[in-house]
């Protein structure tokens, strides 16, 4: 999904503030414009993850043009952040992969040491990457 973000311009003494109009209470900031956009992506993902975990509905994003009509956001800079909802889904999906036996033994050993299943171990490591 592509969520518009409104960025309040910053300067050398003030951070760039970010608001995500389609996600009430979702905001972020950054010391530079690029950092503000990167931080907005993380905020959006966390906001959506919480809604999904709570069983709520994921809001559909509106257009930047619709949001620009809001006088409270007049003079703000606009950007779009793309978020892949599939990465936030907790729906389990069975997959069939092929790995060398040596790699599989290392995964199983590390998973056992971490107190996790093979699938859990792989999933946790992939999410950290």
Topology:
Elements: E1 2-8, E2 16-19, E3 27-30, H1 33-53, H2 64-68, E4 77-82, H3 101-114, H4 118-128
Antiparallel strand pairs: 1-2, 1-4, 2-3
Give keywords.
Double Stranded RNA Binding Domain; 2 domains; four-stranded antiparallel β-sheet; 40% helix
Describe this structure in words.
There is one protein chain. The protein folds into two domains: 2-87, Double Stranded RNA Binding Domain, CATH 3.30.160.250; 93-129. It has four helices and four strands; from the N terminus they run βββααβαα. It has helices at residues 33-53, 64-68, 101-114, 118-128; strands at 2-8, 16-19, 27-30, 77-82. It has a four-stranded antiparallel sheet with strand order 3-2-1-4, with helices on one face. A hairpin with a 7-residue loop joins β1 (2-8) and β2. The longest helix is centred in the middle third of the chain and has 21 residues, at 33-53. The model has no long low-confidence stretch (mean pLDDT 90).
Describe the biggest sheet? 4 strands, antiparallel
CATH architecture identity of the largest domain: 2-Layer Sandwich
* Name of the level-1 CATH class of the largest domain: Alpha Beta
Please tell me the overall pLDDT: 90
Spans of at least 5 consecutive residues whose pLDDT stays below 50 are: none
Quick overview of this protein structure:
This protein has helices at 33-53, 64-68, 101-114, 118-128; strands at 2-8, 16-19, 27-30, 77-82. It has 129 residues and is an alpha+beta fold. It has two domains: 2-87, Double Stranded RNA Binding Domain (2-Layer Sandwich), CATH 3.30.160.250; 93-129.
